[in-house]
Amino acid sequence: MSEDSPPLTVFHMLEKNIGRKVSVILDQSYGFEGTLVSVNREPPGIWLSDAKAIVLRSTIARPIPQVVSREDRSEIFINLNSVQRIEISH
């Protein structure tokens, strides 16, 4: 990257992944899965289509959280101020 170009922001990285499947984790036990369709700057957020609400659980035997249930939610807007982590499926 040249010194004159501005650094990539979270918005640029998200815009590059429009159309891909994503998992958005809101807290340690709750999140959403869906297709990233749009990125908003004001208010900062993302739109997911074909979204599903997911419940995550971890145990002493399996410390990495696993999806234990899904519920259809259609389309949803998620404010980025409440997001802990975004995972992009390739």
Report on this model:
It is a single chain. The mean pLDDT is 90. Helices cover 8% and strands 54% of the residues. It has 90 residues and is mainly beta. A five-stranded antiparallel sheet has the order 4-3-2-1-5.
Notable features of this structure?
five-stranded antiparallel β-sheet, mainly beta, 90 residues, globular
Concise synopsis of the structure shown:
With 90 residues, the chain is mainly β.
List the helices and strands and how they pair.
Blueprint (H helix, E strand, L loop, with lengths): L9 H7 L4 E7 L2 E11 L4 E13 L8 E14 L5 E4 L2
Antiparallel strand pairs: 1-2, 1-5, 2-3, 3-4
| Main beta-sheet strand count, sense and barrel state | 5 strands, antiparallel
The chain-level mean pLDDT equals: 90
Radius of gyration: 15 Å
Shape: globular
Low-confidence stretches: none
Q: What share of the residues does DSSP label as strand, in percent?
A: over 45%
Q: Tell me how many strands there are.
A: 5
Proportion of helical residues: under 10%
Structural class: mainly beta
Number of helices: 1
Q: What quaternary form is this? A: single chain
Order of helices and strands: HEEEEE
Q: Describe the strand arrangement of the main beta sheet, using strand numbers.
A: 4-3-2-1-5
Euclidean distance between termini CA atoms: 24 Å
